[in-house]
DNA sequence: TTATGACCATACGCATGCGTATTGACAAAT
DNA sequence: ATTTGTCAATACGCATGCGTATGGTCATAA
């Protein structure tokens, strides 16, 4: 009979554990660097165990990436989507860029690995959702549909570029302070200000 | 005695030929996908030839990437640097994003491969040069030093993000027309307008 | 206490890709 | 005509990494 695995019981591994470890590797070294034998080593077992839990490497990637997407959606809906003022939404979203680093690192790594079909599919959906959200927010701030769409793309793509730059040259330049100032500049530059007279 | 190779003489290959082929592969499949045996196949020879021209794979990457950087600098200095009006410089630079696709594809591919030390070094220099140029241009347009720096980063990183998105989902969405409109929106949004009264 | 199912180790086959060693072909110089 | 230097083919060794096959351990259910 199947065993009921409790969180603290680390006597044996579950699919979840493997997916979690996979996401960790992806975050720091990218999808290409994800090797099952290395992963098994990290988890203190051999790959004989891996192939009991998953059919192959691709199945792991798929499961891990979809778990990330799921978590991404839930986190978003528990925070930003609950705000009503569009300007506040955007500001919070922008400032989020430097919090919850792990999730952003995964995002960035996945964005660079769209040669893998499953990853491409997921990043497709993620991009669409985020750009749509941004477009709606800019429309609510009074921009016309066309401008809002372009501004949404500009916003999203500057986010993509920032993460890539920040991740790859991280030991480099730009203190935490500078990053904060940069984000505030972006807020000033991209979010239309409401001058109520 | 060494043979003097003319451009049209394709009876045998030169270092340049290998570097050119390497850059082409990098542009379309990234640095990681660069394999000497596959490259030799593309050039119609075997790898026995490759190791006569280069010590190893890394030497090829280094030579190819540095050739690209060199060409990048020269192209820049032959066009944009020659303009005097900073606003014109920036506009031309932005609109360049959709021309000379090959060079942009290489840029984007290299930016995703900074795990390779030589590539990291080159992209480091390239990034610095471009951000510096943008910063100076924005300052010439009247922005203060701090704002100009941030705006330069925002500009550069949105460029990085755009290329990555455009490359990876290229068959997808966004017609040439849409891209043009997007670029014009970016120009409007990021370049301060001179209202002379 | 025996049997079953969950989890893992060991050992293998196979493909890819780097780098080396050796030999060959062919043009230009002597 | 012979030699020398340039470019390339062939064949090998080696490492990595995927996937499979098979057997072992250990808890729990019967």
The general outline of chain A is elongated
Number of helices of chain A: 9
Straight-line distance between termini of chain A: 71 Å
**Main sheet summary of chain A:** none
What percent strand of chain A?
under 5%
Largest interface: A-B, 35 and 35 residues
Q: Could you give the count of β-strands of chain A?
A: 0
Percent helix of chain A, as a range, is 55-70%
Low-confidence stretches of chain A are 1-9
Mean pLDDT of chain A: 91
Order of helices and strands of chain A: HHHHHHHHH
> If you compute it from the alpha carbons, what radius of gyration of chain A comes out, rounded to the nearest whole angstrom?
20 Å
Structural class of chain A: mainly alpha
Give the quaternary arrangement of the chains: homodimer
């Amino acid at each position: 009979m199947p065993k009921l695995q409790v969180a603290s019981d680390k006597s044996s591994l579950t699919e979840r554990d493997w997916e979690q470890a996979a996401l960790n590797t992806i975050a720091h070294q990218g999808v290409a660097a994800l090797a099952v034998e290395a992963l098994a080593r990290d988890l203190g077992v051999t790959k004989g165990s891996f192939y009991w839990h998953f059919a192959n490497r691709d199945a792991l990637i798929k499961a891990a990436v979809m778990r990330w997407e799921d978590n991404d959606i839930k986190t978003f809906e528990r925070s930003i989507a609950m705000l009503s003022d569009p300007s506040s939404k955007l500001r919070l979203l922008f400032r989020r860029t430097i919090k919850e680093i792990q999730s952003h690192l995964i995002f960035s790594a996945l964005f660079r690995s769209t040669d893998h079909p499953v990853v491409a599919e997921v990043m497709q959906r993620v991009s669409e959702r985020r750009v749509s959200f941004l477009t709606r927010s800019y429309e609510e701030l009074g921009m016309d549909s066309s401008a809002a769409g372009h501004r949404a793309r500009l916003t999203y793509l500057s986010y993509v570029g920032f993460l890539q730059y920040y991740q790859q040259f991280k030991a480099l330049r730009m203190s935490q302070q500078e990053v904060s100032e940069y984000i505030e500049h972006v807020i000033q530059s991209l979010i239309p200000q409401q001058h109520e007279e």
